[in-house]
Inverse folding.
C-alpha cells in the first residue's frame, strides 16, 4: 500500500457540496430508520422481564449475568478442548465440579439418551435398538419424546404413564412397575426413566427413591430433570424435593430459568462421566468438552455463571429464591415451587349461576366440569386482554387451571398482589 495518496480526485469529491449533502442525507436516513425500528421492535415483543410476566418459565437476569454474557461475547472463543482455550476448560471445571454446561435441557437430554442407548447396545448389540423403551409420566416434557426419536428410539416405545390428581400428578411406582413388566413380556427392553422435579404444567415432583428402587432391578438409566425447580433446591429446606438424587445416573437443571443467569446456561452432571468421553481423544489428563456435547464449538458460558455465583454468593441467591416462594396458595394442584395453578371454584360458579337454587335437571357432573373449565378459560382471556399481566393455562386430569409463575428479578409482592 502506498504511503502517499493514490487518488487525489477522491479527496476533492468528498469536499464537493453536492457529495457532502448526499452523504449527510444518507446518514440522517440511516439514523431515522434505526430509531423507527427501535420503536417498532419492542412493541412486537412479549416482555419476558416485565414484573407483570407470570406465564412461561422465564429467563431471569441480573447485572453480573449480563456482564458475564458480554465477556463471553467479547472473548469469542470456541473452547472445544483444553488446548484451544485452556482457561475456558479450567473455569468450567471450577464452576461445575466436573459437570458440563449445556445450552439448554433439550440438548442435555439428547446427550444423556444417546449415552444410555450406547451403554446398553454395547452389551446387547445394535440390532436391539428397536426394542429399547423409555418411560416417564404424562407430565414429562415433550422434548424427551423428540430426543428419543433423534437418537433412534422407536416413537411407539415411549411410555407416558398416566398420573392422577390423587397422587399430585407424580409418577406412581406401581404404575411404572406394571408398565415395565408389560414391556418385558412383549420382548422389549426397559432403557431409561425420566423423573421430573417441577413439571412444566403444574410443577409436579416424582419421588426418586421408590422409583429408583424399581429401575435398579432392571438396570435402567434414571435421569432427574429439574430444569426449572433445580435452582429451588439450593435452599436447604427445599432439598427434600430431590431426595434420592444419589440413585440417579444423571441430573440437569437450567440456571437461566431462576438463577439470574442469561440464556443459554444449563447444568448437567453424570454419576460416571466416562460414558460421555471418547477413549480415542481423551488424554486422561485434561477434560476435552467437545466429547461431552453434540457440537464441536462451545461458548464460554462458564464466565457468566461464575460471575453470578461469585457476585451474589449462596446467601443472596437463596434470598432471591425464597423471595418468590410463599405457601399461601395451593389451589388447583399442590404448590411445590414458585408457581401456582388456580381456578374459580366449581361451587362459586354454580352458586353464582343459580343464586342458591338447584340447577335444572339434565345438567350432570360432566356438564358442570365443562362449564367450570369454560369460565376459567374466559377468566384467563380477560387477564391477558387487560395488558396488566400475562399468564398461561394447563389442563390436567380434565381440570382447566390458570398458571401464575413467579421468577423474574424485578417481581415484587406488590406486583403479585396486583395480578
Amino acid at each position: 500500500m502506498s504511503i502517499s495518496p493514490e487518488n487525489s480526485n477522491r479527496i476533492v469529491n468528498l469536499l464537493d457540496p453536492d457529495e457532502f449533502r448526499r452523504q449527510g442525507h444518507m446518514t440522517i436516513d440511516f439514523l431515522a430508520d434505526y430509531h423507527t425500528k427501535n420503536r417498532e421492535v419492542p412493541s412486537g415483543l412479549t416482555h419476558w422481564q416485565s414484573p407483570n410476566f407470570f406465564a412461561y418459565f422465564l429467563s431471569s437476569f441480573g447485572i453480573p449475568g449480563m456482564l458475564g454474557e458480554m465477556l463471553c461475547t467479547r472473548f469469542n472463543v470456541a473452547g472445544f478442548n483444553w488446548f484451544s482455550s485452556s482457561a475456558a476448560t479450567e473455569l468450567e471445571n471450577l464452576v461445575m465440579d466436573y459437570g458440563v454446561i449445556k445450552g439448554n435441557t433439550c440438548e442435555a437430554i439428547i446427550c444423556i439418551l444417546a449415552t444410555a442407548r450406547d451403554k446398553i447396545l454395547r452389551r446387547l448389540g445394535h440390532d436391539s435398538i428397536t426394542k429399547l423403551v423409555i418411560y416417564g409420566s404424562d407430565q414429562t416434557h415433550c422434548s424427551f419424546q423428540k430426543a428419543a426419536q433423534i437418537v433412534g428410539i422407536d416413537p411407539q416405545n415411549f411410555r407416558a404413564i398416566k398420573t392422577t390428581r390423587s397422587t399430585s400428578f407424580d409418577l406412581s411406582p406401581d404404575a411404572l412397575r406394571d408398565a415395565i413388566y408389560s414391556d418385558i413380556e412383549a420382548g422389549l427392553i426397559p432403557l431409561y426413566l425420566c423423573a421430573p422435579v417441577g413439571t412444566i404444567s403444574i410443577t409436579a415432583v416424582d419421588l426418586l427413591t421408590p422409583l429408583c428402587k424399581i429401575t435398579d432391578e432392571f438396570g435402567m438409566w434414571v435421569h432427574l430433570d429439574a430444569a426449572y425447580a433445580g435452582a429451588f433446591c439450593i435452599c436447604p429446606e427445599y432439598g427434600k424435593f430431590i431426595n434420592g438424587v444419589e440413585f440417579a445416573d444423571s441430573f440437569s437443571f437450567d440456571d437461566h430459568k431462576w438463577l439470574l443467569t442469561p440464556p443459554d446456561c444449563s447444568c448437567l452432571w453424570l454419576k460416571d462421566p466416562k460414558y460421555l468421553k471418547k477413549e480415542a481423544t481423551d488424554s486422561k489428563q485434561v477434560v476435552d468438552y467437545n466429547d461431552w456435547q453434540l457440537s464441536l464449538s462451545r461458548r464460554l458460558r462458564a464466565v457468566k455463571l461464575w460471575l453470578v455465583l461469585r457476585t451474589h454468593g449462596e446467601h443472596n441467591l437463596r434470598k432471591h429464591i425464597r423471595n418468590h416462594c410463599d405457601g399461601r396458595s395451593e389451589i388447583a394442584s399442590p404448590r411445590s415451587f414458585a408457581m401456582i395453578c388456580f381456578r374459580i371454584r366449581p361451587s362459586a360458579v354454580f352458586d353464582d349461576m343459580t343464586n342458591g337454587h338447584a340447577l335444572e335437571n339434565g345438567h350432570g357432573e360432566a356438564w358442570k366440569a365443562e362449564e367450570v373449565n369454560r369460565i376459567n378459560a374466559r377468566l384467563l382471556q380477560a387477564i391477558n386482554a387487560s395488558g396488566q399481566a400475562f399468564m398461561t393455562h394447563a389442563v390436567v386430569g380434565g381440570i382447566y387451571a390458570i398458571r401464575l409463575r413467579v421468577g423474574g428479578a424485578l417481581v415484587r409482592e406488590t406486583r403479585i398482589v396486583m395480578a
In short: The CA atoms of residues 202 and 308 lie 28 Å apart.
